Amino acid sequence: MRCKYCNYENKPGDKYCENCGASIENNMGMNDISSIPVPPPMGQEGASQPTAQNSPQQNNGYQGGYNGQPNPYGQPNGYNGQPYGQPNPYGQPNGYNGQPYGQPNPYGQPNGYNGQPYGQPNPYGQPNMYGQPPFGYFNTTDESPKYVEFGEAITLFFKNYVNFKGRSTRSEFWYAFLFTFLVGLGVVFMSIFMSRTASNILSYAVDAALIVPNFSIEVRRLHDAGKSGWWIVGSILATLLMLYSTIAGLVTSLGGNIEAGSALIGLGYLIAFPICIVLIIFWCRPSEGNNKWGPPPMPPMFRR
Length: 304
Prior knowledge:
mainly alpha; single chain
């Protein structure tokens, strides 16, 4: 007969299970009986020893047996014979390399890269490039060079009226160029409603007011691109050449020789054109790093 508690096959006629000691008569086909085994009376055939539930050697846990049975290996429950929650068996305190967790590392150096505490300056003595600008590397004043918008560019244009030694960014230079172009258009528009004499006076006055700051910002833009300011001589020569050829061509044309006048104007512009192209390329170059004309502009990410 098979015991329904431990599934052990007993011999016919057994009253108690030889494996678990439960009454076979009580568990045959009766599913509403309590699942707790009923041990046989002591001294009867088939009686078993006290179960593991009453055993003083009971030791529930890993490797401790199943269903409350004692550990079959003779070791106390725990890793490698150590009770759970006790120090490890190697004689060292818990932690890395014998150091308790959360304590300084065992090499005698403070926590951090290369012995430096976290968040402290790097050990190489160089300025920190992340988050803050290196001291003295960028321009930190209100002067040029700066990355600016239109209004601030016009302010710096007149503020550095005769400054031929500093630097100017591309935004400063090209916003100033746009400003002078718009002023020139305004003069032409106003000349329509003015007499010839008044319009000439206005045109000469505007040119005289803007010629010096125009030359100075061209020099500063060359410096910012890492080029010598003496390249401005090419700009002056190209301007004078185009002006002279235009005047000479008009005079020649008014004298009756239109073809010769047109040829003079075209020749002057043809000679000046390569010089202008070279200067435009220089003026379009990005700002160079720290050079002999001063520090570079501060990037927008560092500006307050």
